């Protein structure tokens, strides 16, 4: 079976969040299971582009409204990621350093999708499945079925949509409908939701199967999906939840080259202590105190706006017996408050504004606890990385966090769970973390060794996707 994954992100080419991690891993594991999985994404001007060898495989042209554009497709030569990687370039639109955040993002991603459809339409042998990821590729199923230029050849290809985050939908007013290639006007309802063109809603309507990245998030979308609740309820018959995995080869504390000291489930005490000591020396913290970290985007969805007050209250309430270290970027106001906090609580708190892959690995390895108070977390990968590295996750009971982390008060619990994204719930959970940390010789160490042996690899998820393709 030949599967084409189409996405805006793919690690390590270009990544803004968990979407990039999934697209960078799932195809590799599908190939290892004997299928032929490939990835198609935009050709951003990233370090990966300039550091690797490419070959030109196709050049073509199409219209974005009345404007004709040329596009090219290149392939990474060595198959170093474990799958064929294709990059689509549209000069003036996709040749940017960043993935998102431009005023013409609508035009950029529509041009990308038009180019992908035009290119695949010219293949001698068509793929068996087109797997679209999130709204940036959500118009492809509509174009394949209803646009005159593509429907004769692409209309019969089964398509799958994975919703990584239903909060982002890419909706636009009908004044931009001219950007979509000529289509059967009788089918315009397949583009519409709430009187606007909505690529995510369109994909849900047009694809053969819809997946999301955890069973709990699948249920949550029927009640909280930024306006698409009724659609997910109506289409529930073709929806399923498949929990994301992690790449155990990339995320392995026994071989991770980014760590100060490698370790496994038998040697984690010495290994984690060494990594923690280096972190604390670097950021001016006390290695004898429990270290709680937050890794991720500093946005409301992650409840990052609660961090400054929650950290302050925790340090005060627990008399400075705990340290915090934050890695992330996002809301400038939250960044500023956290930056100011490190001067107020020097020796107890520090922050790295930005993103560092190497530092994130060190934090998973050296921290004692990972805090994830998310308001929305469809699956979450950070808690899975933390479990793999023996770091106890402190999570709000939502989405994939609820599916993967059981509270240590329950049988064989492997984390700390709380119900509300609130300062009170966070500070209370910090108190529970302190109690757990002070029980090192018994429960805390048992938990860390046990959680490191849990298998959250991609093999099972990759097989479930393959079964889904067959039913599509």
What's the story with the biggest beta sheet? 9 strands, mixed
**Count of folded domains:** 2
* Total strand segments: 17
Radius of gyration: 23 Å
CATH class of the largest domain: Alpha Beta
Task: Report the principal-axis shape.
Answer: elongated
Number of helices: 17
Question: Per DSSP, what share of the residues sits in E-state strands of 2 or more residues?
Answer: 15-25%
Structural class comes to alpha/beta
Q: Averaging pLDDT over every residue, what do you get?
A: 96
**Would you identify the CATH H-level superfamily of the largest domain?**
Glycogen Phosphorylase B
Distance between the ends? 12 Å
Low-confidence stretches: none
> Which percent range fits the helix content?
25-40%
CATH architecture of the largest domain: 3-Layer(aba) Sandwich
- Widest sheet, order of strands: 3-4-5-2-1-6-7-10-11
- CATH topology value of the largest domain: Rossmann fold
Would you give an account of this structure?
With 472 residues, this protein is of the alpha/beta class. It is built from 17 helices and 17 strands. It has helices at 18-32, 47-51, 105-121, 140-146, 151-154, 199-206, 215-221, 229-234, 268-283, 307-317, 332-344, 357-366, 382-388, 399-404, 423-437, 440-452, 458-471, and strands at 2-6, 36-42, 54-64, 67-76, 84-90, 129-133, 159-163, 192-193, 196-197, 209-212, 239-241, 291-295, 323-328, 349-353, 369-372, 392-396, 416-418. It has a nine-stranded mixed β-sheet, sandwiched between helices. Strands 14-13-12-15-16-17 form a six-stranded parallel β-sheet, with helices on both faces. Helix 1 crosses helix 17 and helix 10 (307-317) crosses helix 15. The longest helix has 17 residues, at 105-121.
